[in-house]
Amino acid sequence: MQCDVITLANKKTGTIELDDSVFGTEVRSDILARAVNWQLAKRRAGTAKTKERGEVKARKGKPFNQKGGGRARQGTTVAPQMRGGGVAFGPRVRSFAHKLPKKVRALALKSALSAKMAEGKLVILDEAKMKKAKTSELSKQLTKLNWGRALVIDGAEVDVNFLRAAGNIIGLDVLPSGGANVYDIMHRDTLVLTRDGVEKLMERLK
User: Fold this and answer.
1) Is the distance from CB of 93 to CB of 188 less than 8 angstroms?
2) Would you state the pLDDT for residue 71?
3) 2-6 and 12-17 as β-strands: parallel, antiparallel, unpaired?
4) How confident is the model at residue 70 (pLDDT cuts 50, 70, 90)?
5) Span 2-42+100-205: which CATH code?
């Protein structure tokens, strides 16, 4: 399929051929959900921790006599029902990460790209480069382009000046093609790909 290519000044510079197998596939919402859950699970720290009865630092003997006190019998001071005792079935330090097959991850990325294409929220940029790292200049250009919250995906490397200029703009993220992922694509209103970014993604997903 053909798609127009524009500059940061919002001028058309030509067209580019997009591979239908990457940008025109069926949008699988179930696969997208699996990929997003996989990404978010890997981010979780898993550091929540409570002490069990064997880890509580206390005298672990019998708190009072078995009989004669008028109270329910207790065998230890660190039981879960005792004040200051251990927690029963509390959280433990663990990893929430799980595996997702490479083919499923590739299909999810294709679905995310195809979803943006189908919604008309995919923009092809000639190049994401600036002569000077000026946030004010880039901000003015973005206001005219009206992208909203956007994700810019460049080629193998990102232009340093463009990256620095975009660093202080809220709602604008910049990634190299190797960092393209489902969560960031679906989390933004507009997906912006450079020519180099398109070529790298098609090489990666073919």
Assistant:
1) no
2) 94
3) antiparallel
4) very high
5) 3.40.1370.10
* Rounded CA separation 77/87 (Å): 12
Per-residue pLDDT reduced to its tens digit, 47-67: 999 999 999 999 999 999 999
Q: What is the 3 state secondary structure string of 53-106?
A: CCCCCCCCCCCCCCCCCCCCCCCCCCCCCCCCCCCCCCCCCCCCCCCCCHHHHH
Angle between helices 102-119 and 29-43 (to 10 degrees): 120
H or E segment to which residue 12 belongs: strand 12-17
Burial 95-130 (b: 16+ CB within 10 A, else e): eeeeebeeeebbbbbbbbbbbbbeeebbbbbbbbeb
Domain extents in the chain: 2-42+100-205, 50-90
Radius of gyration of the chain (CA): 27
pTM: 0.85
